[in-house]
Automatic annotation (TrEMBL):
Entries under Pfam families matching the protein: Dockerin_1
Alphabetical list of InterPro entries matching this protein: Dockerin_1_rpt (IPR002105), Dockerin_dom_sf (IPR036439), EF_Hand_1_Ca_BS (IPR018247)
Name assigned to this protein: Autotransporter-associated beta strand repeat protein
Annotated keywords: Signal
The species this protein was found in: Pseudobythopirellula maris
Molecular function via GO: hydrolase activity, hydrolyzing O-glycosyl compounds
Lineage: Bacteria, Pseudomonadati, Planctomycetota, Planctomycetia, Pirellulales
Amino acid sequence: MARLIDVSTAMVAFVCFWLIPTATAATFNWTGGAPNNYFIDADNWSPFGGPPGSGDEASFRLAGGHTVLFQGGKQVETTELYVEKGSYSLRSDSLDPAVYNVTSGASTAAVLDAFLSVGSASTPIDMTVTDDFQVDADATVQVGGMSSLALGRLRVGTQLGGVNAVTVSGAGSSLAVGSGTQLGGSGDSSSLTFNSGATGSLNKDTVLLNFSSADGTTANLDVRNGSTLVTETLLIGLVGSSSATRSARLWVDDPGSSVTQVGTTGLLVGTANNPNLTAELWVTNGGVFHSGTGNVRFRSTGELLVGESDGPTQQGVFNANGPLSFESGALLRVGGVLNAYQGLDYSDGEINFYDGDLRVEGGAFVPALETDGSYVYRGAPDSGGFGTTPTELILGAGATFMTTGPVQIGAASRFARLRAEAGAQIATGPVVIGALTLFGDSLAELEVTGSGTQWDVDGSLRADYGGFDVTDQAQLITGFALIQGESATVVDSAGWNNSGSLSLLNGASLTIDSGGSVSTGSVSAVSSDIGVSGGAGLTVASGLTLNVGSSMTVASAGPVTIGSANITAESTVDVADGSWTVTGDVDLGNNTSPNPSVLTAGDGALITIEGELDLNPTGVVKINLGTVILNGDLVDDGGEIDFIFDGRLNLNSPDVGLLVNSTDDELFAEGVRVVGAGQLSPGQDLSAAGELLVATGGRFHAAGGDVDLGGLKVAFGGEVRYSGGSLDVAGPVVAAAGSEIHVTGGSTDATLGDASLLNGVYIAGELRTGRNTVTLLDANDAVFDSGALVVLGNGLGNDGTLVAANGLTLDFGGNITGDGVVVTPDDPTKPLTNNGNIIGSDPTDPLELTGYVKGVGTLDNVVITGTDAPGFSPATVVRGSVEYAGVLEIELAGTGEGEFDRLEYLLGAGEATLGGELVVALLSGFRPASGDVFEFLTTEGGVSGLFTTETLPALGGGIGFDVQYGPDTVSLAVVGVEGDYNGNGVVDAADFTVWRDSLNQTGEGLAADGDGDGAVDQNDYAVWVANFGQSASALAEAASVPEPAALVLLACGLAALRRVGR
């Protein structure tokens, strides 16, 4: 600032101007002889003719005490004022202020070796001196309550020495100086004091100690007890001598007291060329100092004290609104609040925190560095004195702090807090929070907070004897970190990116909450705790190690992602309503600790392990309303998995096999005991890509939840019982003879097998569906071997359902029974091949078969809504009671026994209930003859109903099938006359016409195809000739001799045939 840069030249001119000799005016001397002591009374003045007026000098030189009265509300005026010796009190005679003006024309007004009191609260005076006002030679001036003193310039003790003082005291009292104020310069003591609610205004330069001050000069400007002062430029301790001992002080003290510099004015404290100078600015006990926006500069002999004066009461506040700097040797003592709003440079100075706050905004924070290049923010003593609360260094809006060296917060036996906020930008070398020293431990805290705030640490962050917080969207970046016995928090959407290792030791804690996020290379915790909650997240790029009773708690959190994890020595991970994912391996437990290391999936938790899970002897995974997903292998080193309550376990590696043994019905996964999984309760889900083997005598029971398996093998005597939820086996199912699979309960579904495998389902034991649906998946047909027993329904009138999408084979000796539906495709390429026995348990509620049924097995108490195709070619099969609501296929290959399908209803009630469609097929070119009869259905219990639709092959040549229903049988009869090509029941000339018109046609069932070879030719004519004249009523009679008329027709026919031949 120019005014500070050229301050020496300015002060030379300023002081020389004040030393110009004054002009002499007409002088009146106060005698005070009149009875009333009024200023306007001529009897009080000598020579007679007073009082002094405009152009005169009023001179007060009498020893002793005197009161000079002025008329309230009236104004008097002199050109000069001179007070020497004695004590004078200027008073109004009423509550109305009297006005006394010392006007222009004089060069000075002076109080020398005298006492002058200007007004009081009850006798106010408003006094104005338009030019200089000098207080010197042991002089005192007091301005009382409700009174004012307005001056052109003020000089206190600048020339004659002695103890000189100006005091403005009391509510309503004021001092205004228009063109500069100077205290000190001639030795001894000079002071200007505003007290008890007084106000002041000091314009232009205010100088405490001028450049020519004599040895021993003391100059003080005090603003106390709720008083306020407005100034422009302040110069404290400006001297030229290089050896004289001097002191200058500006003191703002007590609540409500303030000094405010206006505009772009600056502040200069101390000098660089006199080590014996003491230049101080104190702000204490609730006082406030506001600098202008110019430079605030403390030179080598300058000192700033912001704090208390006599103990821990109310802090002082110093607001540096311009750039604040401290030169070499300058001292900053902070016990209150120091706000540096345009940066702080004390790189060459010294700071001593004893209790208070330092705030830096709007510029660079440049602290003094140690000889090794480090910055140590020592803080206040941590016990006794002023150290009851920590000091706080605040780097706020627009502040920057850049250093490549280390930073230490706190020092021996001190307590310090550093706070970066509101967008501050900080880049430093390694940071240590607190320190253990030979001289006592330190306590320290670091907080990085606010949107846009960032602290970039090039190297390590050590929190040894102090913790740190990263809050409110701020960002902390470190190379690696150590937290020892202290706490760290990252909350409110703030982030901490630590590229290397993070170590937590000796009771340390890391809390990540409310959307905060931490990303680190690795984590090692010993007897320490980590908490992630409130939508927060944690990413550990490589390994997490929890040791010696450490814990990690994840609750209502965002993703926690870890490269690998080693949880040992009684350490725990507890996840609830959040996700915890390890992309590598997890090693849980150890061989030495007596108590377990536990990984718990609590309510709403999702724990995912992509790699291998190694369960050591004290390693325990607990599932308590959460989900554990293992995508890698499971290694059994003596640990276990516990179903504490509801939850889900997913073992997604096909290499992880499951076993239920014959001893305790517990489930083992690759040898790891899964406590409770052998007897799953409702709400407990199990998913495994590997195969479950239920050993001989073993029992796998699930009372609810969902079970998904990659395969299922049930040995002889093994049992799988499922009574709730769903059972889904997405791999091959092999159930040996003597095994049992029960799907019971009221709302249980089961899917068994793999539709892509040729051996998707093979069951030789017992399968019970209860009143549920069991779906069998196989690339071709699911197989029930000769020892199989399938029971549908629960026997209480509730039907079960068995679904085989690609068909089903029931081998010889196998049985399907019960109530319900067997669902297979109505497709001959995906048949239900029944070579065993399918028997419904109740004839009034028959077992329904929806598919294409073939084979030589028996059926009883069934309804076929699909297709019944007995045998594998024409065969005789045994039935019980069967209802047809779909299709019955009958194949004819001849008239002999075994050459056509025959259904013999011999079992049970032996009843046939007809409906649906009858489809008859001829095999191997067989063409029955007229009169052939095929009895394809016989019953013991009778036939009821008719086929709704009869699909019969067309025989042609005048014959066809007729379905004939009897009480106990159903037959196919071939009826008609061969050669009756028009179907009128008589072989006559009209049939010849049909033959002629159809000659050379080919196809099935042609009307004139008398021999049934698929073509109308001369052989069919021969059939007509051979049967000419026969009728349907005379089939048994021999052919008659043709009558003449008939012979004529025959001759004509032969002639026509010859013509066709040509």
